[in-house]
Task: inverse folding
């Protein structure tokens, strides 16, 4: 898909939010175990970049990976199968939501904060050598930019002129620590000493994200080296499902969610631009129905066989 179609992007954001909400329901009803990190509030970054992600690219994500996996064209049903711990999930139900791995589209994620950047360099090096024009996308949170790995990755990516797009999603917090209390300077300028240009963009505005992403990918795909995009948004849910979230005063939190809701914002702008409310409602309903169908199919997948517990894991090699 090329170009930016605002109604289509709106529908995709509704799909993304529904995906995250239904996964949240799976946590609440006890179907999903372990820590769960949702990206509700951050949809415009993924949806804005999606038209720029091409077949042959690689995408490396974080502990908050679902929307990145969707734009990397990971099969949503197999992803949900993994999240719901089923044997037909991407990794046989053994990885769970933070360990999604799909070699068929070169998507992976990692729960190690700061690791996505150096890992993406490997994918980028392979692309530079064997797939000109393809890029590796490295997604990071604001918390990750203060890890040494980020500076190391910027340095090597610039030195080797690797085709990598670093995308930092600044959602305001690293767990309970506000970005403002942990991070000096402007994140999008972190690449400057290495000659890497950066774009700072409102991550609640899908079109703005698309425009910045297009400028960044134009550079990277033409072989001029890496680029950095920093998208600022607001994390609606706690750091993980169940986080008591004592660090965000309730009234301020509610207000910020109202102001920084990418879906409400896109809807208002579409209506102001003359798109009919009926058309949007139809699109919303279609998106929700589609995601409910994915979740139903994933929940209907079989459970892993206990006899297979040791296959495909390190214990197998040790046995
Ligand atoms: C190397 C490492 N240190 C600490 C943690 C624990 N941890 C998990 S998520 C997280 C915060 C990450 O914040 P950020 O990068 O801003 O991403 P966000 O959760 O906001 O999406 C931390 C400290 C970890 N997983 N890995």
Result:
């Amino acid at each position: 898909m090329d170009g930016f179609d605002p109604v289509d992007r709106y529908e995709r954001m509704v799909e993304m939010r529904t995906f995250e909400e239904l996964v949240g329901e799976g946590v609440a009803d006890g179907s999903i175990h372990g820590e769960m990190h949702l990206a509700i509030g951050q949809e415009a970054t993924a949806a804005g970049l999606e038209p720029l992600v091409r077949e042959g690219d690689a995408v490396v994500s974080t502990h908050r990976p679902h929307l990145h996996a969707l734009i990397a064209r990971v099969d949503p049903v197999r992803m949900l199968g993994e999240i719901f711990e089923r044997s037909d999930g991407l990794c046989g139900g053994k990885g769970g939501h933070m360990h999604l791995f799909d070699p068929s589209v070169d998507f992976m994620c990692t729960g190690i904060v700061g690791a996505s950047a150096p890992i993406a360099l490997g994918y980028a090096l392979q692309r530079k050598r064997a797939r000109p024009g393809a890029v590796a996308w490295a997604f990071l949170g604001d918390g990750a930019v203060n890890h040494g790995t980020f500076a190391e990755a910027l340095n090597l990516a610039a030195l080797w002129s690797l085709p990598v797009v670093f995308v930092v999603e600044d959602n305001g917090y690293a767990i309970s620590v506000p970005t403002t209390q942990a991070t000096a300077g402007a994140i999008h300028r972190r690449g400057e000493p290495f000659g890497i240009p950066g774009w700072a963009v409102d991550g609640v505005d899908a079109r703005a994200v698309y425009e910045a992403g297009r400028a960044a990918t134009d550079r990277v795909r033409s072989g001029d080296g890496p680029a950095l995009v920093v998208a600022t948004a607001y994390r609606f849910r706690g750091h993980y499902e169940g986080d008591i979230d004592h660090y965000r005063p309730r009234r301020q939190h509610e207000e910020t969610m109202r102001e920084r809701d990418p879906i409400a914002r896109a809807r208002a702008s579409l209506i102001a631009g003359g798109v009919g409310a009926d058309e949007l409602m139809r699109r919303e309903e279609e998106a929700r129905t589609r995601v409910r169908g994915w979740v139903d199919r994933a929940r209907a997948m079989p459970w892993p066989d206990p006899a297979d517990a040791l296959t495909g894991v390190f214990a197998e090699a040790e046995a």
